[in-house]
TrEMBL record:
Belongs to the serine/threonine dehydratase family. Its cofactor is pyridoxal 5'-phosphate. Keywords: Lyase, Pyridoxal phosphate. GO terms for biological process: D-serine biosynthetic process. This is Pyridoxal-phosphate dependent enzyme. The lineage of its organism: Bacteria, Pseudomonadati, Bacteroidota, Flavobacteriia, Flavobacteriales. It holds the Pfam family PALP. Residues 17-304 form the Tryptophan synthase beta chain-like PALP domain. Gene3D superfamilies: 3.40.50.1100. The keyword Nucleus does not apply. GO terms for molecular function: ATP binding; L-serine ammonia-lyase activity; magnesium ion binding; pyridoxal phosphate binding; serine racemase activity; threonine racemase activity. It comes from Zunongwangia pacifica. It comes from the Bacteria.
Length: 316
């Protein structure tokens, strides 16, 4: 059984510190007035490769033996984790093998190549992605690193909330978007370990509300449609992070596509920072249920800022 304590998370943070940015915490007086609460944005859009996932990828690689590091790491991802594992591996002198669906945007493939990842393309089904990754594991002896359902990845992601709580220890609530469960799982652990009077809340689009339904049913649910602009949240929970979420997450608030777009516009216009739609889901949840957050101190983790500028017309 996994043991989670303060010392373990602090060790993770110390381990990855030389390889990541300690990202800023920003606030907006106008957004606070609109929301009726004080929001502290932990800006992982300023993280290396533009998202929180650099933290978990780095920790997962650093936990491998030197022998295993030399054989490399492999993952399947069409988005931020593909870039994160590639850059983390490059920083540590480790080969990275990235399985990407053939229909992944060229801009994401180019980013992975820039970070030194070795791309293998496959058909765009989860079965094909998993089989292709397994083939590389068997051929290269590389270690598979799951984007969100890996304890070392989850702990790495939790260091963003740890940094937030070190600067803002008296938060009432910490809220994050929910996709594969790595960020909210790590956040919930950090909050439970370092700020037990603080609640962890998740935010999710109605179009991919598998985590919301999973908490209700008590088992991991899937999505039939993934029709959302929050493209980083289309993945589902796993057996490593779901028990953590069940135990430590207060609730998950669902938001519409229009609510996501409005929150995204508000952040871009008022804070003058570029964030991806997935990040705006958390602010959309606060604006949707103002009574829940009224006059409270809120920590909000901006998950990333990797926007395909060629698709701006679809966002606003």
């Amino acid at each position: 059984m996994e043991v989670f304590n303060q010392e373990r998370l602090l060790q993770v943070h110390e381990r990855i510190a030389p390889y990541i940015h300690k990202t800023p915490i920003l606030s907006s007086t106008l957004i606070n007035e609109i929301a009726g609460c004080a929001i502290f944005f932990k800006c992982e859009n300023f993280q290396k490769m533009g998202a929180f996932k650099m933290r978990g990828a780095t920790n997962a690689i650093l936990q491998l033996s030197r022998e295993d590091q030399q054989k490399g790491v492999v993952t399947h991802s069409s988005g931020n984790f593909a870039q994160a594992l590639s850059l983390a591996a490059k920083s540590l002198g480790v080969p990275a093998y990235i399985v990407m669906p053939s229909n992944a945007p060229q801009v994401k493939k180019d980013a992975v190549k820039t970070y030194g990842g070795n791309i293998t393309e496959c058909p765009a089904t989860l079965k094909d992605r998993e089989e292709t990754a397994l083939k590389i594991v068997n051929e290269k002896g590389a270690t598979f690193v799951h984007p969100s359902n890996d304890i070392e990845v989850i702990l790495g992601q939790g260091t963003a909330a740890l940094e937030l709580l070190q600067k803002k220890p008296n938060l009432d609530i910490v809220i994050t978007p929910v996709g594969g469960g790595g960020l909210i799982g790590g956040t919930a652990l950090a909050v439970n370990l370092f700020a037990q009077s603080t609640k962890t809340i998740g935010a999710e689009p109605f179009e991919v509300d598998d985590a919301y339904r999973s908490l209700i049913s008590g088992k991991i649910e899937t999505n039939e449609s993934i029709n959302t602009i929050a493209d980083g949240l289309k993945t589902q929970l796993g057996d490593k992070n779901f028990p953590i979420i069940q135990k430590h997450v207060e609730e998950i608030i669902r938001v519409t596509e229009d609510e996501i777009k409005n929150a995204l516009k508000l952040i871009w216009e008022r804070m003058k920072i570029v964030v991806e739609p997935s990040s705006a889901v958390a602010l959309a949840a606060i604006l949707k249920e103002p009574a829940k957050f009224k006059n409270k101190q809120i920590g909000l983790i901006i998950s990333g800022g990797n926007v395909d500028l060629g698709k701006l017309s679809e966002l606003f």
